[in-house]
Structure formats: structure tokens, C-alpha cells
Amino acid sequence: MPTLYSLAKFCHGGSLHHMTIEQIDLGDANETLGGMDASGRIRWAWENFGTGLLTSTSFGLQSAVMIHLVREASKEIPIVFIDTGYLFPGTYEYALKLQEKLNFKALVYSARLSPAFQEASFGKLWEQGKDGMSKYNWMNKKEPMNRALQELDATVWMAGLRRTQATDRKKLNFIERQNGVLKLYPILDWEDRETYQYLPKNDLPYHPLEGMDYDSVGDWHSTRKLSEVEKTEDARHGGHGRECGLHLDVPEGTDFTV
């Protein structure tokens, strides 16, 4: 396994610690990260980027995996929770349980408008087709996350995406540039079984909705059970694709002032 010293080949000048985005050669970085395990990838990010590192969580079915891995690497890495206000009651219960179990406090970010004000202003966007769902996701997920990245002065955003979760994720690299930050996926190469078994192996609780026919859980109004859809990817976001916009590039000219 490469040492921190051997990672110097990525660096085009400057210190190994607290590197900037421009100092990373993505090809070399991905080759090296591919030879590490998930814990090693997180340690690599912490050692190289320090306080510029954060991770996001949805407190979904498998969220305990990334949170536990991150807390094992450092207690100082911020954990950002994007709360839409429409999550399942069990998700909020799980959020409280995991924070107590792992002794951390998530940094909560939400839309600038409350759910009630949004519905009064725009109606139920998730019932207004693909465009409505897209607007809903930008307001409730992408804008709050973008705000978190800016306020926390993040250089690297870690997320628990895995290649087996969706067609769009099969070609992801371990690290990539997106919207002015680096995105790192420490468990990208994990299989479903490995992820599922990680929880009992590390004495972590399952989400209350585990085993209730959900592949993943998000907002209650646009999450479906597997038995209710033809394709797994249709079980989220009202059937308009697995990605909610949180992990997609921001279109040029997108207005975050809503």
C-alpha cells in the first residue's frame, strides 16, 4: 500500500499537507486510491487536505458505514446532514440514534424556505413531473449542500456512493472534480453484501426501515418499495432517476438564491 510519502508524485509543488485542488493529478490519485481500502482512502484525504475535508450523510439505510469509517479516521471531520423536512420518521430516529452511538453532532443544512412555505408557493413539486421534481431537488438538496461546502470552506467532499447502486455510478472514479471541489467515494467498490454486513460487524444499528422492501430511502413522498416499481432506479425521486441532483454538476447559471 502506498505511503503518504509516495503520494508526493501527485503534487505539482507545495506541501503534502493541505493540498489544493490544482495540486492533484486525478489519474495518479485514482490509481493509488484504487490500491487502498476504504479506511486508507479516508486517511489519505485527511492527511492531505485536513480541515478542507467533509462528508455528507442522508442517515439512510447504509449511512452508518461512512459515518463510522470517517469517525475512525478523525473526530474532526465535519458530517453534513441535508434535511429536506420530508424524510421518513424512522430516518430522523436513526439520525438521533447514530449521533448518540458514535458521539458526534451532524451539521444540519436545509432549504431556505420551509416545507410549508414551499408548498404554499409552488404546490407539491414532487407531483409536477420531472421538472417539478428537479426543482424540488435543487431547492431542498443541492442548494443546501452547495451552501455547506461554501460555508465550511471545503476542498474535498466525501460521499458513500457505490458503483453497484445505479447505472450512472458504474463508471465513477474514486476521486473527481465537481463544481469547484473534489469528490471522493471511499466505498465506491464495495458490494451490497459487504456494506450490509459492516453494520453488525461493528456493532452499528440498522435503519428502522431496513428489511421493509426498500432499496434506499429518501423523502417519504417520492420513495417507493421495490415491489412497487419495475426497475430499482425507479424507486427514488418519483421514478425520475436515482440521482437527485446532489451528486450532479451544477448547470451554468443555476440560481441558488431561492
Characterize the structure shown.
A hairpin with a 2-residue loop joins strand 5 and strand 6 (181-184). The protein has helices spanning 26-34, 38-49, 63-73, 89-102, 115-122, 129-151, 192-201, and strands at 53-57, 79-82, 107-109, 156-158, 175-178, 181-184. The protein is globular. Helices cover 34% and strands 9% of the residues. A six-stranded mixed sheet has the order 3-2-1-4-6-5. It is α/β, with parallel strands linked by helices. It has a single domain (17-239), classed as HUPs (Rossmann fold, 3-Layer(aba) Sandwich). The chain starts with 25 loop residues before the first helix and ends in a 57-residue tail after the last helix.
Which H/E pattern describes the elements?
Answer: HHEHEHEHHEEEH
Write the CATH architecture name.
Answer: 3-Layer(aba) Sandwich
Helix content: 25-40%
User: Which band does the percent of strand residues land in?
Assistant: 5-15%
Number of strands: 6
| Average pLDDT taken over every residue | 86
Radius of gyration: 18 Å
How many helices? The count is: 7
Biggest β-sheet: count, sense, barrel?
6 strands, mixed
Query: How are the strands of the biggest sheet laid out side by side?
Result: 3-2-1-4-6-5
Structural class: alpha/beta
Low-confidence stretches: 1-17
Helices and strands, with pairings:
Blueprint: H1 26-34, H2 38-49, E1 53-57, H3 63-73, E2 79-82, H4 89-102, E3 107-109, H5 115-122, H6 129-151, E4 156-158, E5 175-178, E6 181-184, H7 192-201
Parallel strand pairs: 1-2, 1-4, 2-3, 4-6
Antiparallel strand pairs: 5-6
Helix pairs in contact: 2-3
